[in-house]
């Protein structure tokens, strides 16, 4: 009986040792086997492995021989951080191409017997956002919108100290794009690509608030929660912009973005209803991100959930 128990014990140890080797923990298992032989249990080995390893996104187990995982993580973050100047350049460039492409579709439609049609303009805005998210999101977070930047900062997912610089870069990009369009189309005032309310100011304010809230709710879901499919962030956000333009475009111009309205307003000297587009999207975006925080149910703290989320959050 004792001999049978001995063989069973040895068999279990061999199986456990093979499992450890397959996980890259052969050295640790060998150490315990050589020092504790028959006193070793599967639970004690698993506990030992847990104390000396760190999980990397659930895909890789790394044995931390020096027991200094926090320092390694810190060093890695420093090595992969993006300089602020580079992020600002990405935000300015992204906002420039967003405003240029989107507003150009409006101007081309006005000057060519509405060849693009309104659904065509909506598609241009949505596709442009999608392309820019995938192109520049890993550099700056692909905000291209002061409302998004302020909303992320309000929930501490973006550093407050970088907010003014981001907003300045976004406004500069919008101004340059609007200036380029006015230069290309000979400054014709009939081709104003900005946003003005078609109805009352109150109606425009409420609509801009709702569609920006919707947009920010979607962004918060796909960009700040690691339970979402981050690879689809650009497609989802671009589709949301397309839907919002289809819904609200004829009434408010579907700005959702203070920089989108401010640039053309300054370049074309058309400020009618500008306060709506500066205030309502910011309030809507902040409300959207806080509503998602309320809807998000988890036992983990917010920083733990967002640390491996999509690039839309932006490198810090």
Automatic annotation (TrEMBL):
Any Gene Ontology CC annotation: membrane
Keywords recorded for this protein, A-Z: Membrane, Transmembrane, Transmembrane helix, Transport
Listed name of the protein: Uncharacterized protein
Similarity field: Belongs to the MIP/aquaporin (TC 1.A.8) family.
PANTHER family tied to this protein: AQUAPORIN NIP1-1-RELATED, AQUAPORIN NIP2-1
Broad class of the protein's primary localization: membrane
UniProt-listed PROSITE patterns: MIP
TM regions (residue ranges): 88-110, 116-136, 163-185, 205-223, 235-254, 274-295
Native species: Canavalia gladiata
């Amino acid at each position: 009986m004792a001999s049978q128990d001995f063989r069973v014990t040895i068999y279990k140890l061999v199986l456990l040792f093979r499992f450890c080797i397959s996980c890259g923990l052969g050295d640790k298992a060998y150490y315990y086997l050589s020092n504790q032989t028959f006193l070793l249990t599967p639970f004690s080995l698993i506990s030992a492995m847990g104390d000396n390893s760190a999980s990397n996104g659930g895909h890789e187990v790394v044995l931390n021989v020096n027991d200094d995982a926090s320092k390694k993580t810190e060093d890695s973050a420093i090595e992969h951080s993006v300089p602020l100047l580079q992020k600002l350049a990405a935000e300015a460039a992204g906002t420039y191409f967003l405003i240029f492409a989107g507003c150009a579709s409006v101007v081309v439609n006005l000057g060519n017997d509405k060849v693009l049609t309104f659904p065509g303009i909506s598609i241009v805005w949505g596709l442009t956002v999608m392309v820019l998210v995938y192109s520049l999101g890993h550099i700056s977070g692909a905000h291209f919108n002061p409302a998004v930047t302020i909303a992320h900062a309000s929930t501490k997912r973006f550093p407050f100290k970088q907010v003014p610089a981001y907003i300045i870069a976004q406004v500069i990009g919008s101004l340059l794009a609007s200036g380029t369009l006015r230069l290309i189309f000979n400054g014709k005032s009939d081709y104003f690509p900005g946003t003005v309310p078609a109805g009352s100011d109150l109606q425009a304010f409420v609509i801009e608030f709702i569609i920006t809230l919707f947009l920010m709710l979607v962004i918060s879901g796909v960009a700040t929660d690691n339970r979402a499919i981050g690879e689809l962030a650009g497609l989802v956000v671009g589709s949301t912009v397309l839907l919002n333009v289809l819904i609200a475009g004829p009434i408010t111009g579907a700005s959702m973005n203070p920089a989108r309205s401010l640039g053309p307003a300054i370049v074309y000297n058309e400020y009618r209803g500008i306060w709506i587009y500066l205030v309502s999207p910011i309030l809507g975006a902040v409300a959207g991100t806080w509503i998602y925080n309320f809807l998000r149910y988890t036992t983990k703290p917010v920083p733990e959930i967002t640390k491996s989320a999509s690039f839309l959050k932006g490198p810090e």
